[in-house]
Amino acid sequence: MTTSFEQGINTLKRVIDGPIASYFSSCTNCGICSQACVFFTETGDAKYTPIRRVEPMRRIWEQEYTIIGKLKKLIGLSKAVTEQELQDNVELAFESCTTCGRCSMMCPVGNDIVYMIRRMREGLTAAGLAPVELKEAAVRTMEKGSVMGFPMNTLEAMIEAAEEETGIKINVDEPNVDYLVLLSSAEVMQFNEIIGALAQIFQQAGVTWTFSSKAHEAGNPGMHMGASEIEAMMINRIVEAAEELNIKKVISPECGHAYMAIRWEGPNVIGRPYPFEVYHIIEVLDELREQGKLKTTGDDCCGNERITFHDPCQAARRGGVNQPQRNLLNMVSSNFVEMTQNKACNWCCGGGGGVNTMEKTEPLRQKIFHRKRMQIEELDVTTVVTMCATCRNTLEEGIEDNGMEVEVLGLTEVVANHLLKEKNNE
Amino acid sequence: MNEVELLNWARGPGLAYATVIMVFGLTLRVIEILSLGRPKELAEVRSSGTADGVKLIVKRSLPEPRNWRYITASYIFHVGLLVVIFFFIPHTQLFRDVFGWFWGGWPNYIIDFFTVLSIAAMMYVLVQRRIDPARRILTRFSDYVVWVVTFIPFVTGYMAFHRLGPDYTLMLALHILSVELLMVLLPVTKLTHAVTFAISRYYTGSSMGRRGIKA
Question: Is this prediction's ipTM beyond 0.90?
Answer without folding.
Answer: yes
